[in-house]
Amino acid sequence: MGRPREFDEEVVLDAVVQCFWKRGYEATSVRDLISRTGLTGASLYNAFGDKQAIYRRALDHYVEGSIGDRIRRCEAMEPRAAIEAFFREILARSLKDEECKGCMLVNAALDVVPEDPGFRAAVADVLHRIEGFFLSCIAKGRASGSITSSRPAEDLARHLLGVLMGVRVLARVRPEKSLLEGVVDTAVTLLDQDAVGDRREGAMG
Hints:
The protein is an all-alpha fold. The chain has helices at residues 9-23, 30-37, 41-48, 51-74, 79-96, 104-111, 117-144, 153-173, 177-189, 193-204.
């Protein structure tokens, strides 16, 4: 039997996430991870594998604790409110990010994905998951009349995904409240076009 681990894996992964998130994949050394976690190199490798495997575990941990958690909470809301709540939380996180670390998933797409097909597929899967969340909300909102049906649901979902990625990149270099809120508010308003049109038609009738 192997010896039981003498550390809390969740705590270690939290530390690893912070290290990779702040420095990026290439700039983070195993020595950095050892310093941040307090583990030996042998303990890290035995628990998680090589540096690439450690990064993959850290990215998965980040996704489930951040993006996955947000999706699960928002899915319990009314569809239109769910989309807005999702973006409001993104805005709050972006504006409070004093180190301008951005989103670890987006950083991975720019830092690692071009060189690694495996990571490309992993990041793409998460983006599909986010797009699927938007699409599900839009479909439910269209059925209840709270979201526009003037545009294809798939196009709206893709647009929201693009807005999300853009906001997270903008926040790294221009974390300005008016800029980020303006981008999000405009995107969210597109969900309401039918309601605006209906009011205009009613006024003309």
